[in-house]
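Ligand-bound model needed. iron/sulfur cluster.
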Amino acid sequence: MTQLNTPYPSTAYLTGFLRSRGIDAVQEDIALSLVLELFSPAGLRAIRECVDAMPASERAPVVAGFSEHFKNYLATITPAIAFLQGHDPSIGHRICGRDFLPEGPRFASLDNFIDEDGGDPLAWAFGALGVQDRARHLATLYLNDLADILREAVDPRFEFVRYAESLAESQPSFEPLAKALAAPQTLVDHTLEMLTLQAVDRNKPNVVLLSVPFPGAVYAAFRMAQTIKAKYPGVTTVLGGGWVNTELRELKEARVFDFFDFVSLDDGERPLLALFEHLEGKRPRSNLVRTFTRVDGLVRYSHHTEPDVPFAEVGTPTWDGLPLDRYVSLLDMLNPMHRLWSDGRWNKLTVAHGCYWKKCSFCDVSLDYIGRFDGASAELIADRIETIIEETGQSGFHFVDEAAPPKALKALAEELQKRNRAISWWGNIRFEKSFTPELCNLLADSGCIAISGGLEVASDRLLKLMEKGVSVAQVARVTRAFSEAGILVHAYLMYGFPTQTVQDTVDALEYVRQLFAEGCIQSGFFHRFTCTVHSPIGLNPAQYGITLKKLPPITFATNDVDFIDPAGVDHDTLGVALDKALYNFMHGIGLDEDVRSWFDQHVPKPRVGRHFISKALR
Ligand code: SF4
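Prediction:
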């Protein structure tokens, strides 16, 4: 349960790697199948049954509307999904007519788009010609209504990109998850069980690996493992993935092993090779690599030190087996960068393993996926790109590096040019000064359409404390160079950082205002700072002026940790103003206004000169 528009890359990487080592591996995306099954005519009929079982007095308006217009929902669900899958563009004209799809409460959001001429409110957002985009946005609102109905009538934990997330996010105890797994199944659970059994019957595996990148995927993974263990107790089940790597490092809960035989940490390649040897009787359990298992009722961690498979040798990811034509492109956010996330099919690939900078104090630099930097030659990456294009027929790439190194991007751009290979790509970088205007132009020529990077709290004092290695003036120059090369720039912004004052927040917003006004950035998002146990701040809080709150005893997951900041600022209230301002800046609104006008409470005047950024650019 991560994204609906494109497969998550971990299974593609592991399938490619295992096959390159002669291991017969197949992959399935059950999350996509689950959503397609629930939002099909049969799925809607099943939801209807749940609605009918509810007392009329308990039905929310969205549910009542579903019953009333059920015939319309039933008639439109298949064409709407086909349209969002890109199969049936002509129906877009009917969708735009606004009398085809039944419209529930989610459509009220269209009122936010003020149309001064009294015409089509979406014209403001999508321009006069964007029939397909408008239709996609309307079909997304329609699906969001259906998801609301599902939550109201069937299972309140359901979301398209996460399911029952709270059961796994920094949950010190397994108890809430154990209770949920022992509870009677909802329609969502039941559908998941059916799909899991179908996949196992189809593939007849000896070993099933479940990759869990985020907390919102955990409950479903445990449900799937539970299903497999009940029907096929001889199948070995293994849990791994990003959430495991960050949150399960202190695992002591033996009940996890009622579901999974093994839990592996960090990159899967080496642990899996060792595990398969173990399963073949060629390696003792004690020589497993970064793997938890249960021995005599207790959790044991085995780590036989062996080097990881170098990035250059992990092979090319393969999407073989995933139904690339069935992914659903939603368009529910008008933030241009988020749109790239949820819209369109992107081949996900990394230019290097880990982060070459690995210093930022809020980042999980102590973990392998950030802290172990390992690159590969531009020729090899270009070979992988060409193999993937041949396999998928698609030339769009999302480089999913935490921060792609400028040197590697330059070399790759030159290699792609040498091969006369046209692709489009986007990815994450650090706004560092080696991205000169010349390099930005070269990257644009190589197909770069968008980049994102952290400006975090736009404040030189705090950027220093973060060890970000950039200054606001430098970010202005680098982002302007990207923008002038025709590349969309998205800034990750942060608030609530240790010792951040109200004055710092107002100043940061003033910098951001100027960056938009000067055409340096076109998109952004304010994230609330969270302290994680693996970050330098979590490891040395006193150095950053904060005290961590005591964590409860950990037997299951751990990641975020609450802290006390003597600055004592109410960041929640400030966050509302930041979001409002940013949303407007992205649409070119309010760029000349005093930033204090976005705040409901009295805030101090910015200390930043009104022309700071334009001077920095000069
Ligand atoms: S925040 Fe980004 S640039 Fe900084 S260490 Fe983490 S991955 Fe690297």
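The pocket of iron/sulfur cluster is lined by residues 355, 357-360, 363, 365, 370, 402-403, 430, 454 (CB under 6 Å).
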